[in-house]
Design a protein that fits this description.
The protein has 292 residues and is of the alpha+beta class. It contains nine helices and eleven strands. It has one domain: 2-Layer Sandwich (Beta Polymerase, domain 2).
Length: 292
């Protein structure tokens, strides 16, 4: 009886407080794609960008299906592949788990300092591309404007986008990142995929490093990113995603809570690795209790 009441309460919260409005999602998605088409087109006019650019990846909680609140924040990863001639390799550090250095044998544009990729160099180069593209906007009839851009230490340049048609605004984070094959991963990489997702999926064959420094003083340590693999692990797992969204809503209603969204997502990922965790055909209340 208690679980039945909990199920009803959680389902009502999910319907009334968490589910996003379809109209707003559609409107912002259309404008986001227009923005991406314009900026990627402008970036590609730079020959060095064009030589290393592979694709963009819609990251973040919205595209993970974990967004709570309005669909007004988006993460876009620009995925780069370093030239073969640079012979780029990953170096891990026991003192800094989750971070790596990227070693190169020769210059990669202006991105390296000696034999290591350097975060400040990368962000300076990327900021130059953004400034050039923004200046080109005056020559195009676009449905959006760039209200402002905000630059952090790394890895994102945040665009506040204005919708000229509806007078709304939303934020887009552009994040440069570098792709490496799974053969370069020096840890127990197979645990992320074994028995959980299709081993032939391209996302199981690569990982990303992101120019998010460990601190302001070390500009050669990059953060590892497995967000593609994490998305695959959460896909099709019953009520696991709704359970994460409920946890995020609870966190948001306690404004003094220091818990980051990624920690809550990681909680669920660890639960999925536990053989005793039951999600198939389980109710939302059952999954929520198990995750917490």
């Amino acid at each position: 009886m208690a679980m039945s009441r909990l199920e009803e309460a959680l389902q009502e919260i999910n319907r009334e407080k968490i589910q996003l409005k379809d109209e707003e999602i559609k409107r912002n998605n259309q404008l986001l794609h227009e923005m991406m088409e314009f900026f990627i087109g402008e970036f590609k006019k730079d020959s060095f960008f064009n030589s290393i650019y592979e694709r963009f990846f819609f990251g973040g909680s919205f595209y993970d299906g974990l967004k709570v609140g309005k669909p007004n924040e988006f993460d876009i990863d620009l995925v780069f592949t370093l030239p073969t001639a640079a012979n780029a390799t990953i170096a891990t550090h026991d003192d800094h788990p989750g971070f790596v250095q990227v070693k190169v044998d020769r210059n990669v544009g202006t991105l390296n300092d000696g034999t290591l990729l350097h975060i400040k160099n990368i962000m300076k180069w990327f900021q130059g591309l953004v400034d050039t593209a923004k200046n080109a906007m005056r020559y195009h009839n676009l449905n959006f404007s760039v209200v402002k851009t905000t630059v952090t230490v790394g890895p994102a340049i945040t665009f506040t986008i204005g919708d000229k048609r509806y007078g709304k605004q939303f934020d887009v984070d552009f994040v440069p990142c570098f792709k490496f094959p799974s053969s370069q991963w020096l840890g127990n990489y197979v645990r992320l995929t074994e028995g959980s997702v299709d081993p032939n999926d391209q996302l199981t064959k690569e990982f990303l490093v992101v120019p998010k420094p460990r601190d302001n003083y070390c500009q050669t340590l990059f953060r590892l990113s497995f967000q593609g693999q994490e998305r695959l692990l959460l896909e099709g797992k019953g009520h696991v995603k709704p359970a994460i969204r409920l946890l995020k809503l609870y966190r948001d209603q306690h404004t003094d809570s220091p818990i980051k969204s990624y920690y809550l997502k990681t909680l669920a990922l660890h639960a999925l690795q536990d053989s005793s965790f039951i999600y198939k055909d389980a109710t939302l209340s059952s999954v929520f209790v198990q995750v917490t």
